[in-house]
Recover the amino acids of this structure.
């Protein structure tokens, strides 16, 4: 026979709100009183237990979630194994303390029952799914003067054409050059920390590095760095004027987001911004995923050569 409540519970008029769930006997702490809610796809079903229990800021019960496999569900309901072919999420009511006979059982809701259902059972928080980690690291302890001088010497060589729009871009530099060794080793150790933070496999190595020099009006068009774990840029000059050209990153869903959320932002934040930009800072390196589209704004300072070194980082053990 179907029983909407365990034998130890009943529904009575509550001093808190309308009807509530009350104990008919002493119930020990940590007793599982059965299911309050069941998640079926996008649908949340409440049992009588979940429907009548009232809120308290000092509750004597808590909800505990668990997964019910399709086999368990079908067995529980004497159904053939193929009846339901997906798993269920369910919430049970657990006593937090010993419950006296006649005591009302309570749960802590955030606002009210409906809000609690929304907050805790369906979307308890915003999940940062499509995040683009960008790390800025201070390497100002390195030999900046030596590295900048090395870059400027490269400027005398033939430029390649990649993302640069009229600026100078060298070919790949020799990573074993003495002046670059500390920069390369520091980049590897910082990348390893980043891999740990992001739970990505190590070891990493700097695969290649090149020099960029943007004169007045020069820029770098939107591009990305495929086949890399990370890419980045290092700024060796002693100072960078504000108008020398920011690096600008583009949201991975820039095009459709720009259409659907056009002028919908009240305040810009990491969720609703189409782009994020950083000004070059002396001695700083910026490391970001190679899949993140970026560009460099035009250097609008007539008296400044904007010098930087770009690099690609790969997992040194990744199979091709
Ligand atoms: Fe780049």
């Amino acid at each position: 026979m179907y029983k909407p409540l365990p034998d130890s519970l009943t529904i009575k008029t509550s001093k808190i709100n309308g009807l509530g769930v009350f104990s008919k006997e002493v119930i020990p702490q940590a007793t599982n009183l059965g299911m309050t809610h069941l998640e079926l796809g996008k649908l949340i079903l409440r049992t009588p237990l979940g429907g009548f229990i009232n809120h308290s800021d000092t509750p004597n019960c808590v909800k505990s979630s668990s997964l019910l496999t399709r086999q368990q569900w079908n067995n529980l309901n004497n159904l053939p194994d193929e009846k339901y072919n997906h798993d269920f999420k369910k919430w049970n009511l657990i006593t937090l303390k010993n419950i006296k006979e006649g005591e009302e059982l309570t749960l802590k809701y955030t606002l009210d029952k409906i809000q609690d259902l929304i907050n805790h059972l369906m979307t308890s928080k915003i999940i940062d799914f499509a995040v683009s980690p960008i790390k800025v690291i201070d390497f100002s302890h390195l030999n900046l003067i030596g590295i900048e001088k090395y870059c400027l010497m490269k400027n005398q060589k033939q430029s390649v054409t990649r993302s640069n729009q009229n600026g100078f871009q060298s070919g790949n530099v020799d990573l074993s050059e003495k002046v670059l060794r500390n920069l390369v080793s520091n980049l590897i150790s910082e990348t390893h920390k980043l891999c740990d933070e992001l739970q990505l496999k190590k070891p990493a190595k700097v695969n290649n590095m090149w020099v960029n020099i943007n004169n007045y009006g020069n820029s770098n068009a939107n591009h990305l760095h495929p086949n890399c774990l990370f890419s980045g840029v290092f700024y060796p000059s002693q100072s960078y004027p504000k108008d020398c050209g920011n690096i600008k990153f583009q949201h991975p869903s820039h095009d459709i987001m720009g259409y659907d959320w056009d002028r919908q932002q009240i305040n810009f934040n990491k969720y609703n911004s189409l782009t994020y930009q950083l000004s070059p800072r002396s001695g700083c390196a910026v490391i970001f995923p190679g899949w993140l589209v970026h560009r460099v704004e035009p250097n609008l300072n007539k008296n400044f050569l904007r010098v930087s070194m770009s690099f690609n980082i790969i997992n040194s053990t990744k199979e091709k």
Q: What stands out?
A: Residues 178-198 form the longest helix (21 residues). The CA atoms of residues 12 and 19 lie 5 Å apart. The chain has six helices and 19 strands. The first strand starts at residue 9 and ends at 13.
